[in-house]
């Protein structure tokens, strides 16, 4: 028997190319991507730790403080928006290639794109779960069709 090394199916790992408009597409990972979820949980713990000493009577904001939205944009740019195609331009009107930093900057500058990415990443995750559920429900073509995949024992009559 041979073992085969194959490229992972993007549907199974939860990432897709999604059209934003006629000219621009983004490669979007599912919102349930493990690295994104870990980073998001870590960011929330760090924010809670930094805010632990404050009360409603003495709320302060310093120059080193960051908005939760900005942190979320950084995480989405790094773990959810994986690539793009189409004319995405910098401040000088020059088309730029994808990078996590530029993706985060795009998300911070454009709330509509931010909301769209969250929505599409949720759809990607739900679609991936649906495809896995459908695959698990199918009988294996390599078996005799038994539900558990085991052949029936032969009688010795």
Automatic annotation (TrEMBL):
Annotated region (Disordered), positions in chain: 134-157
Domain of life (superkingdom): Bacteria
Entry protein name: Phage tail assembly chaperone
Origin species: Pusillimonas noertemannii
């Amino acid at each position: 028997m041979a073992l085969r090394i194959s490229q992972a199916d993007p549907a199974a790992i939860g990432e897709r190319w999604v059209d934003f408009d006629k000219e621009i597409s983004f490669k979007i990972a599912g919102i349930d991507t493990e690295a994104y979820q870990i980073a998001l949980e870590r960011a929330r713990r760090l924010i809670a730790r930094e805010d632990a000493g404050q009360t409603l009577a003495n709320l302060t904001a310093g120059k080193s403080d960051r908005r939760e939205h900005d942190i979320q944009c950084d995480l989405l740019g790094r773990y959810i928006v994986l690539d793009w195609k189409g004319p995405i331009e910098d401040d000088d009107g020059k088309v730029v290639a994808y990078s996590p930093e530029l993706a985060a900057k795009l998300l911070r500058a454009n709330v509509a794109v931010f909301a769209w990415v969250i929505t599409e990443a949720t759809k990607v995750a739900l679609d991936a779960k649906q495809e896995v559920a459908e695959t698990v429900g199918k009988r294996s073509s390599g078996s005799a069709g038994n539900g558990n995949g085991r052949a029936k024992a032969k009688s010795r009559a």
